[in-house]
Amino acid sequence: MLDFTPVREKQMSIYDLTKDLTARDLHRLTDEMLDEVTAIITDATDADVVFTPVDPQAKDTFGKAEEADLAWTLGHVVLHATASSEEGAAQAASFARGLVPEGRSRYEPDWRTVTTIAEVRQRLAESRRMRHAFLDAWPATPHLDVIQETQYFGPLNASARFALGLIHEDAHLDQLREIMRQARAARGA
Predict the structure, then answer these.
(1) pLDDT greater at residue 139 or residue 100
(2) Burial of 54 (C-beta count, 10 Å sphere; 0-12/13-18/19+)
């Protein structure tokens, strides 16, 4: 998996880390990320999907105000993380085709509707399929020279925009591990 530490520690931009990655590289990184998520939840049960963990750091400043301090369930984290990676993949496809997209292209299903581990696994499989499809939409010679300057992330090309989804998903891996640790303990496993 890609080591995002230099980006998180502000030693390198996401662009510098990823600017030369190819669609083939991003296919591989997508599979590595989703394989890691799958490994974390390998023994998850339906009860684990809706289990509410103790999370004193819960603070969602971008979501609904009434849910700002709500601890996220396993299903919630998976839906949230996959939505961000899919948005990155969708926008990266536009960059690769020579266009800088305007606005957001993010859709996150309602986490309350996912209550079984089969649904979580289906969501992961669907996200994998969608991300690979967006990468397959890249032209044979992608426009990696098309750059969007952003205030927060710095410059972005197609590879960097795709990787923003991966770095976000990567940031949720420890949260998933902790949810599973607590859920296993709650069910006596």
Answers:
(1) 139
(2) exposed
**Residue 103: left if φ>0, alpha if ψ -120 to 50, beta else—which one?**
left
End-to-end CA distance of the chain: 29
**188 in helix, strand or coil?**
coil
Distances in whole angstroms, Cα of residue 19 to Cα of each of 26, 63, 87:
11, 31, 18
Range of the domain at 141: 5-9+19-186
The predicted-structure confidence for 102-157, as pLDDT tens digits, reads as follows: 878 888 889 999 999 999 999 999 999 999 999 999 999 999 999 999 988 999 99
Q: What is the CATH number of the domain that holds 86?
A: 1.20.120.450
Alpha carbons within 13 angstroms on the beta-carbon side of residue 162 total 35
Q: Would you state the pLDDT for residue 65?
A: 67
pTM, rounded to two decimals? 0.92
Tokens 């949720």 appear where?
A: 172
Domain count, the chain: 1
Whether 14 is covered by a domain: the verdict is no
Q: How far apart, in whole angstroms, are the C-alpha atoms of residue 155 and residue 14?
A: 8
Q: Is the pLDDT of residue 56 over 90?
A: no
